[in-house]
């Protein structure tokens, strides 16, 4: 009986120690705070250094956007009256947006693969049956969130009554259940991701070195738990982001270190033509961004 009582007394202590160990080793995966340059009220850029459990993932450029303060706009080159796609820097110069990133995947003839809407109008593309990630912004009616990542495995999207004015379809990478939605193919390339956070902010993630989508999905699932779900835009040479020269200049004049600037400039050696892009601009300056052809 004495031995049994000692065992019962020691069990709470053992469980307590196990709990402490769990908290200690779980902390790196639950405390992801981006500290970078605030470029506007609702826009910041950081470099995110993946922890040790992501040995094959190099630092990422992380752009955090508050949709309540920044507006998203989809642009497609034919809708803009252009005969050929522009590269990312030309798109930024033409539209005047603070930030521009590639909108998704397209064919060799520059036809967009998936649903694409701008200013509430279809831009000529059709729903892709297997790519179930959907970036949506600017609700047609009053809604709680002005931009989201939808997963067509769980969420509905009525093409007869379009609920959002800006829409771009692409690959679902990581869903709300923690499932990685791409196969492990071993193919490595630069990637651009759009992630929805638990607080409603969106995160644009841009790789600085080539990586497989599956490996990147595993890293984000294990090391960035505040991300609710993540979709992948076009990768490879199409993976591109441009920040306006005025914002880069203003950041450089702040003083101090801004590691994202050389990483963003050096991630892609050449910029190819992109038929579709998504731009963001402050809601207080909506008129400042040119919406050519709209």
Number of domains: 1
Question: Which stretches of 5+ consecutive residues score pLDDT under 50?
Answer: 1-31
| H-E string | HEEEEHEEEEEEEEHEEHHE
Percent of residues in helical segments?
10-25%
Largest sheet: 11 strands, antiparallel
| Basic shape | globular
Q: How many helices does DSSP assign?
A: 5
Tell me the structural class: alpha+beta
Oligomer: single chain
Distance between the amino and carboxyl termini: 84 Å
Mean pLDDT metric: 84
> For the CA atoms, what is the radius of gyration?
21 Å
Share of residues in strands? 25-35%
Question: Based on DSSP secondary structure assignment, what is the total number of beta strands?
Answer: 15
Give a concise summary.
21% of the residues lie in helices and 28% in strands. The chain has 294 residues and is α+β, with helices and mostly antiparallel strands.
What characteristics describe this protein?
globular, 15 strands, 294 residues, eleven-stranded antiparallel sheet, 5 helices, alpha+beta, disordered N terminus
Secondary-structure blueprint of this entry?
Blueprint: H1 2-30, E1 37-40, E2 43-48, E3 60-65, E4 70-76, H2 88-95, E5 99-102, E6 116-118, E7 121-122, E8 133-139, E9 147-151, E10 164-174, E11 192-197, E12 202-207, H3 213-223, E13 227-232, E14 241-243, H4 245-252, H5 260-266, E15 276-282
Antiparallel strand pairs: 1-2, 2-3, 3-12, 4-15, 5-14, 5-15, 6-7, 6-10, 8-9, 8-10, 10-13, 11-12, 11-13
Give your account of this protein's structure.
With 294 residues, the protein is α+β, with helices and mostly antiparallel strands. It has one domain (37-288). It is built from 5 helices and 15 strands. It has helices spanning 2-30, 88-95, 213-223, 245-252, 260-266; strands spanning 37-40, 43-48, 60-65, 70-76, 99-102, 116-118, 121-122, 133-139, 147-151, 164-174, 192-197, 202-207, 227-232, 241-243, 276-282. The strands form 2 sheets. Strands 1, 2, 3, 6, 7, 8, 9, 10, 11, 12 and 13 form an 11-stranded antiparallel sheet that branches. A 4-stranded antiparallel sheet has the order 4-15-5-14. Strand 11 and strand 12 (202-207) form a beta hairpin. The chain is globular, with a radius of gyration of 21 Å. The model is unreliable at 1-31 (pLDDT under 50).
């Amino acid at each position: 009986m004495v031995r049994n009582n000692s065992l019962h007394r020691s069990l709470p202590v053992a469980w307590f120690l196990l709990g402490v160990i769990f908290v200690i080793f779980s902390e790196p995966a639950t405390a992801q705070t981006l500290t970078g340059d605030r470029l506007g009220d609702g826009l910041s850029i950081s470099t995110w250094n993946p922890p040790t459990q992501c040995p094959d993932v190099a630092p990422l450029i992380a752009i955090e956007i508050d949709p309540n303060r920044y507006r998203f706009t989809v642009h497609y080159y034919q809708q803009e009256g252009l005969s050929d796609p522009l590269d990312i820097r030309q798109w930024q110069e033409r539209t005047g947006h603070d930030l521009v990133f590639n909108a998704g995947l397209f064919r060799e003839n520059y036809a967009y693969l998936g649903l694409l809407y701008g200013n509430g109008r279809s831009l000529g593309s059709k729903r892709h049956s297997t790519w179930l990630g959907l970036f949506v912004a600017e609700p047609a009616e009053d809604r709680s969130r002005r931009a989201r990542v939808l997963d067509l495995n769980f969420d509905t999207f009525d093409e007869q009554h379009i609920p959002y004015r800006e829409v771009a379809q692409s690959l679902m990478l990581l869903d709300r259940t923690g499932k990685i939605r791409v196969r492990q193919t071993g193919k490595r390339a630069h990637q651009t991701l759009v992630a929805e956070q638990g607080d409603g902010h969106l995160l644009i993630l841009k790789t600085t070195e080539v990586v497989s989508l599956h490996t990147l999905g595993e890293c984000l699932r294990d090391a960035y738990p505040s991300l609710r779900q993540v979709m992948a835009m076009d990768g490879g040479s199409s993976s591109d982001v441009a920040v306006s020269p005025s914002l880069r200049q203003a950041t450089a004049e702040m003083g101090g270190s801004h590691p994202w600037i050389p990483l963003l400039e050096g991630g892609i050696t050449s910029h190819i033509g992109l038929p579709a892009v998504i731009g963001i601009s402050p809601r207080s300056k909506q008129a400042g961004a040119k919406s050519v052809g709209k």
